[in-house]
Amino acid sequence: MHTPRIFTSPGMPGYAYSGFSSKEYKDSICYAITSGAMPYDECLQAIRVCALELRSTFNEIGGLDGAFAANVRRMENLLHFLDEQSTPSADPTARERVLCDMIHRFYDVLYGCVTAPCNKDVARFKDPSFVGNGAQLQIAKACGILVNAIAIANCFAKTVAVQSVSVLGEHEVAEAFHVGLALTTYVDVKFSALRRCLNSSLVPEDREHRRAILRVVQHNAELSRKIAELVDYAIPGHFRSRTESCLKNILDVIETSSTVCEAMVHGDDCAQRRLSLATEARMVLSDNLDRYVSGTVVGSAAQISTSICVNALIKALGCTLLVYREYATSGGEEHPFACSLEKCIQILRDKVYPKVFSHECMGGGGLQLAHRVRLRLCKAADELTAISPELLLNPQVSGKLHRKALCYLAEASCAWKSDNREHFDVPEAGESSSRQPSTSVGAAGMGGSQASYTPPQDPGVMPHAYAQPSTSGLGSTSSGQVAPRVSYISLPSLGSMAHVYVQPSASYEQPSTSAGVSFSLGELQVASHGSQTPSDDDLEPSSKRSRSA
């Protein structure tokens, strides 16, 4: 019941969580706490239930890695600690101390889980006894329950805190939300590039080895998505560095594991363009994560600039991918809304970004390129405006992400026209009849010429099911000239990389959805031993290719 399942949507397979490991479970408990319906002793009981499930899980997988055997002992100690609290103190200070102690213990176990050597052992992910028996899903379940336990304990700790908790500002909330968007774009786009290494693999043994590498990447990407749920300004500053440490270790595994596949797609132009976009997304992720941990909302003095246009594209892609994942998780990728979302993703990833990147690196392109990029941005917006937000799956969350995606597309269009204003004084011949006018408020910025960049206003996105919706608007984002960038693919570890300044441009609330990071891993299940080589750019099944043509 509590073990995640692998959903096998051709366009975006991944892990779907349930029971104690799901975000829905965490949100329901936190809502009960903040509404006053769950007293302190019941909160401790909820944490105890999580600890019992973790002990059982670690007993099952203890033989896989010494880290899991050590975690069995940690759970025993935690359960003994909880037994000692059977008569809870009424003193708020004592309660807060008990909850913080438990959070530290859970973080110790979480770090041991995500850094276990088996998470990056390619040989393990080729072994049917490991993957076939779902060992990687047991590890993901443990991480999911640990994340939920930390969030639940922190949620109650805020209610008993002796010192008042300051109200979060819109820029603070935006930084945490943007971490999730950059992570989503980074992992999905990177994986869509890496899986193209299967195109050139004709020998069955070599093909299976490449699949195993991609399974390692997928597994760690799913772990990073789950850990990223702890990126929340409601988490005290002294715990944020522990979240960062877990995330950095996972992302370093992804980079290291990807090296072999990156070499295999060196001559693949499509893969190289996607890797370039993934590189920029990780740079943005690094900067946002650093600011989240430090508690600042401005970048450092020495930075390598990511342009306003590319930054907006990364955020728009992140929002769109999160909405699409709702359909992929439920097997609804044939739904017309899912088809529109998929087309929008393809346009931004494979049509818009390569042209923007080329222009920023090498300059030139002239009027034809300027209008081509703008029209493709308009086409992406059209795909989104064809969707009725109130009819989306999980509309309370997906509808807000949908509107934010339109705002980010408008932001990208405004920035692009500002950088190429000399080409937008006169509309291109025949331009007005090339597309239907958008009726979406969010896409209004996609239209006429503009001499300077003015960011659109942006509604918020719910951070949790139990949080109050934001009523504030967007902050302003100033534009500026961006120095030409040099294309590169591979990155050093996140801790040593150069920082990127991303000007905060929106107030938001974090979406309450389990869809954080997406993948394209249709042929990577252990049970699948087919050797067919995908031939199209997006490695989609024939039904999707005909639909997207």
Automatic annotation (TrEMBL):
Name the UniProt record assigns to this protein: HGE-14 protein
Species classification: Bacteria, Pseudomonadati, Pseudomonadota, Alphaproteobacteria, Rickettsiales
Chain intervals with Polar residues compositional bias: 431-441
Domain of life: Bacteria
Biased composition (Low complexity): 470-480
Location of the region described as Disordered in the Swiss-Prot/TrEMBL record: 425-481, 525-549
